Amino acid sequence: MSSTSVPPRAAPLPRFGADLTQCSVSGLSSGAFMAVQLHLAHSSMFVGAGVVAGGPYRCAESFRAGAILAGDAYVQGALFICMNPLIPQAGPDPDRLLTVAHETAERGDIDPLDHLKDHRLYIFTGTEDTVVQSSVVFTTERFYRKLGVTEANLKFVFDQPAGHALITTNLEDNVLAANCPPYLNRWSHDPSAEMQSWTILKHLHRELQPAAERLSGRLVRFDQREFFGDEVPCCFSPYGYAYVPRAVEEGRVKPRVHVALHGCKQGYNYVDLTYGRPDRANDAPYGNRYMTTTGYNEMADTNGIVVLYPQVEGVDDGVLQNPEGCWDWWGYSATDYYSQKAPQIRTIHRMLQRLGE
Amino acid sequence: MRRVNASMTDSAVARPQDLPVAQLELARSPLPLVPAARAWSLQSLVGHLVVNQSTQAVQATAALPALALDSTAASEGVAMAEAVCRQWMSLQAQWLEGLAELGQEMAEFRHVNTMSKYVDQEVNLVQQSVALVSTQATATVRLLENIQVNVAWWLSQRSPVAQP
Fold first, then answer.
1. Catalytic residue at A134?
2. Which range (A13-22, A29-38, A183-192, A245-254) has the least confidence?
3. Per the domain annotation, does A115 fall within a domain?
């Protein structure tokens, strides 16, 4: 949950003249659902997406007739159709969502879907995931195939005994099969295993240099509030982060940008709830781990990639219902949460524009 | 609200303004309106549930004739029933695990030097028991919602009239 005091201003997000036709995005859980939305909304800017435990585009709207109010139907759809369907046949229907995506593109709410045919996709679901059923992630894979993503460009991993998490090689992280915060698990006893973020970046951007053993760049804290404009903040935290390699900072490389989206309860200022109240006495800095220990920065460092870590926080004030600080993939912030006009997508797009200036 | 525990780092120093500040915060709070707000929230939810379930019942009825001719529907229905059983057994397992943890903690003899720590330990056990019951209640209601939405959605895909 957000702090009650007004946090001080941070420095603005710097300009790096990034190549905005070579962006990529990845995310875990709600970050994965949002990665799919951002990817489709601005597919002309992206070369691919990494989806770890995420469902297909607009799947929360699968069963509009399930409730009298759209907001109720979409929350139910998110929880019970897109995360935990009892059987695969009660999950999202990729054919129907494909039609929805085409209709959305024809209206001009998202970029034309033709861009996606040459894109590269990394999709992952663990066999021990009890938060987002694997059957849902299978529909994400089928959805992208139907959009024209080729066999060679699509890497789908579904046979690892992992829980609901981004996988690392950090000894401090949870065991592989865990399904609990901080949703960072470690590979089991495999010396050849690598950070999942490295696998994602190598697949999306193809031939990359090996990850740095020691970082040369810096993690930039920037103020996210300037990117809201006059809009409702829609759960954005005061600060976002970006990893900037030294070669980019010194202007020796025209950078690409990777957007890394955390999952629920992983924003830097998320505070866990105890009996429905933010437990500030046990303020756990999950978000710092996501932006510093998941390996994105090491791979970005040697390959001229700026990693953008936008941050959202929990709000549950009776209007916005997002107590766990998830990205909006079921419409809590706006009815057009999936389009270029969506508050969260528009805000991230403004950040990308800044990096491209 | 301060958490109840007896740790060494508890803020226990009394300041003269503590009581007036607390009284002022209480006066500013919308406490008298809370029962009405909760009642309105419940009434609204129940109203939506009644309409939703009526709609879903109509959709299910509309889908039934199609089900009779659908050879795969029976096997999917059985699979769904099995999935519900698995979810129910998982809930029972969590309940038993919670009880076992609670029993183990109750059985452990833990030495205390102060009466406040003793009371803290006893209250902790009560809170853990309440938390276990509330977690089970929430999970059970969530499972019921899950079944309702999934069955209605599954049926609606087999009904030519139910799709929006």
1. no
2. A183-192
3. yes
Q: Which residue has the tokens 């879903």?
A: B56
Tens of pLDDT, residues A291-304: 999 999 999 999 99
The average pLDDT across A216-237 equals: 87
Residue from A62, A92, A76 nearest B48 by CA:
A76
- Site from A87, A132, A139, A277 to mutate, B interface, most B CB atoms within 10 angstroms: A87
Is A29 an active-site residue? yes
Asked if the structure places residue A5 within a domain, the reply is: no
Contact A81 B1 (CB under 8 A): no
Q: Touching check for B150 and chain A: CB below 8 Å?
A: yes
B164 pLDDT higher than 60: no
In a domain, B3, yes or no: no
Distance of residue B59 Cα from the nearest chain A Cα, in angstroms: 9
Kindly report, residue by residue over A106-163, the tens digit of the pLDDT. Answer: 999 999 999 999 999 999 999 999 999 999 999 999 999 999 999 999 999 999 999 9
A326 CA to centre of own chain? 10
Q: State how far the Cα of A165 lies from the Cα of A177, in Å rounded to an integer.
A: 9
Instruction: Please tell me if residue A79 touches chain B, with a CB cutoff of 8 Å.
Output: yes
- Between CA A248 and CA A67 the distance in angstroms is 50
Q: Which of A53, A147, A151, A49 is nearest to A101 (CA)?
A: A147
The 3-state DSSP class for residue A322 equals strand
Residue A195 sits at φ, ψ, to 5 deg, of -55, 135
Cβ separation A277–B1 shorter than 8 A: yes
Q: Is residue B14 part of a domain?
A: no
Q: What is the DSSP letter of A22?
A: S
What's the total number of domains in chain B? 1
Number of domains in chain A: 1
Helix (H) and strand (E) counts in chain A? 9, 14
Q: Does B59 touch chain A (CB under 8 A)?
A: yes
Residue A2 included in any domain: no
> Is B164 inside a domain boundary?
no
Domain residue limits at A331: 23-356
Q: Which of A66-75, B59-68, B82-91, B114-123 has the lowest mean pLDDT?
A: B59-68
A18: tokens are 């990034």
Beta pairing partners, A230: none
Segment B81-94 mean pLDDT: 90
Q: Is residue B86 part of a domain?
A: yes
Q: Is residue A8 part of a domain?
A: no
d(CA A240, CA A8): 13
Query: ipTM of this model?
Result: 0.82
Q: Pairing mode, if any, of strands A239-244 and A305-309?
A: antiparallel
